[in-house]
From TrEMBL:
Residues the entry annotates as binding ATP: S28, G29, G30, P31, D32, S33
Catalytic reaction annotation: cytidine(34) in tRNA(Ile2) + L-lysine + ATP = lysidine(34) in tRNA(Ile2) + AMP + diphosphate + H(+)
HAMAP family on file: tRNA_Ile_lys_synt
Enzyme Commission number(s) from the entry: 6.3.4.19
Function, in words: Ligates lysine onto the cytidine present at position 34 of the AUA codon-specific tRNA(Ile) that contains the anticodon CAU, in an ATP-dependent manner. Cytidine is converted to lysidine, thus changing the amino acid specificity of the tRNA from methionine to isoleucine.
Cross-referenced PANTHER family: TRNA(ILE)-LYSIDINE SYNTHASE-RELATED
GO biological process, one term: tRNA modification
Name this protein carries in UniProt: tRNA(Ile)-lysidine synthase
Xref: InterPro entries: Lysidine-tRNA-synth_C (IPR012796), Rossmann-like_a/b/a_fold (IPR014729), TilS/TtcA_N (IPR011063), tRNA_Ile_lys_synt (IPR012094), tRNA_Ile_lys_synt_N (IPR012795)
Organism: Anoxybacter fermentans
Record bears the keyword rRNA-binding: no
Gene3D superfamilies per record: 1.20.59.20, HUPs
Length: 465
């Protein structure tokens, strides 16, 4: 099978391009991306797509400027439009720190996506090939990756990234460049065993091939493709489960059914959470195995009201009935929308995972903690339930006179993150009758003259507190 046939196979099997698409080809000037561009150029009429080249000068090496000009001229010789970018990675590292490779990759993808949007490209083609895949799989194995990690990378990822050379080896790429008379640029840092990937390529793989398995790279690639197929089946299965356990989806917060989630096997649970993070963030970057284990432990063993702090300002919060995954400030600063509670009746407050029940009994009735006894004749046929508002005040039972709700909650040492989720029960005209779980209003208390008592009960997740 020729190198062209292997690229055709990748394009066809993975549906890498669609009729009439504009493909943004990311070209560094090295042999991999240069060969990719040449092959895509020669196949563009066959598959009916157009090309636009993008190159980023990271300002990491003195040769970078010459390489940028080389790519510009190569694209020009093929009459392919090109966008040449510059970004001062060393300055960024000085300001923010971090790994050179990670920062460069992060900037590269961000800028390439901007260019794609600007020029109208729907796909970004990368020069990763079969040997890169073998190295990635082995590197992930050394780091203790699971099934998803051992897939390495796929011919299509993140929606718009494609890898036409996924079936092509480094040896075939070098032979192709020689045959075509291409003179790619070479990054001398690739020949130095500084980074882990370089050490794997230059030392570990040759040693394993010489002493254990001469076909190691081919078999690592074969394993990656097999795992890709199995992982895809598992992803489809988990996606269906995800839709069943997801109660509510907001831009920054996902709410899940705790009862159903807690019955799932740990491996499925972790995948549901990974899918949730991907939906919220757009990727799973900075989230590792230990984060998912902590979330799993909270779900299966943690107490309601507890949370797990996660990277990038995310948390997983466990209620009595629901799990909330999302930005900390969005979860902890959530407010209740306004609810109506008929008398008698009940209503579930989704944001705070509470059920409030109203029932009426004759005469005066003693109540337990987290219940309120009110004079039913003073309430009417319904009550409103909402979050606190600026300027709220009431007459706390047992205190003299009225008090600002804000001051009352401070005196009760209520955490500021919890205050917005405390149900404030009012009459239809807005008078506070009960700060749920804390104090009734003196004006609506049961007295010797009370003929009917309205009992309000808080239940968490349908279970009495």
């Amino acid at each position: 099978m020729t190198i062209y046939d292997k690229v055709r196979k990748a394009i066809t099997e993975y549906q890498l391009v669609q009729d009439g698409e504009l493909i943004l080809a990311a070209v560094s000037g090295g042999p991999d991306s240069l060969a990719m561009l040449e092959i895509l150029y020669e196949l563009k009429d066959e598959f009916n797509y157009q090309l636009h080249v993008v190159h980023l000068n990271h300002k990491l090496r003195k040769e970078a400027k010459d390489e940028a000009e080389f790519v510009r001229q190569f694209a020009k010789s093929h009459e392919i439009p090109a966008t040449i970018l510059e970004y001062d990675i060393p300055a960024l590292l000085k300001e923010e720190g971090g790994s050179v490779q990670d920062k460069a990759r992060e900037v590269r993808y961000r800028l390439f996506n901007r260019v794609a949007e600007k020029v109208g490209a729907t796909k970004i083609a990368l020069g990763h090939h079969a040997d890169d895949l073998a190295e990635t799989v082995l590197m992930r194995f050394l780091r203790g990756a699971g099934l998803e990690g051992l897939v390495g990378f796929t011919a299509r990822s993140r929606g718009n990234l494609i890898r036409p050379l996924i079936y092509v080896t480094r040896e075939e790429i070098e032979a192709f460049c020689d045959e075509k008379g291409l003179t790619p640029c070479y990054d001398p840092s690739n020949a130095k065993p500084v980074y882990l990937r370089n050490r794997i390529r230059l030392k570990l793989i040759p040693m394993l091939e010489e002493e254990y398995n001469p076909n190691l790279r081919q078999q690592l690639v074969q394993m990656a493709h097999l795992l890709e197929e199995e992982n895809l089946i598992l992803e489809e299965y988990v996606s269906r489960i995800f839709e069943n356990v997801l109660i509510k989806e907001e831009p920054e917060v996902l709410s899940f059914d705790l009862n159903v989630m807690s019955k799932k096997k740990p491996a499925i649970l972790r995948r549901i959470l990974r899918l949730g993070m991907e939906k919220l963030k757009g990727d799973k970057k900075d989230f590792y195995y230990q984060h998912y284990i902590k979330m799993q432990e909270l779900i299966l063993q943690g107490s309601p009201g507890k949370m797990v702090y996660l990277p990038d300002g995310y948390i997983l919060y466990k209620g009595y009935k629901m799990l909330r995954l999302g930005k900390k400030e969005e979860i902890l600063n959530q407010s209740l929308r306004q609810y109506t509670l008929t008398i008698p009746g009940e209503t579930y407050l989704e944001e705070s995972d509470l059920l409030i029940k109203a029932e009426v009994k004759e005469g005066q009735v003693l109540v337990k903690k987290d219940q309120a006894a009110l004079d039913a004749d003073l309430l009417g046929t319904a009550l409103l339930i909402r979050s606190r508002k600026p300027g709220d005040w009431f007459y706390p039972l047992g205190l003299k006179g009225k008090k600002k709700l804000k001051d009352f909650l401070i005196d009760e040492k209520v955490d500021r993150f919890e205050r917005n989720l405390i149900p404030i029960v009012t009459t239809l005209d807005g008078q506070i009758v009960w700060v749920a779980g804390y104090r009734v209003d003196d004006r609506f208390k049961v007295t010797p003259k009370t003929q009917k008592t309205c009992i309000l009960t808080i239940l968490k997740g349908g279970i009495k507190r």
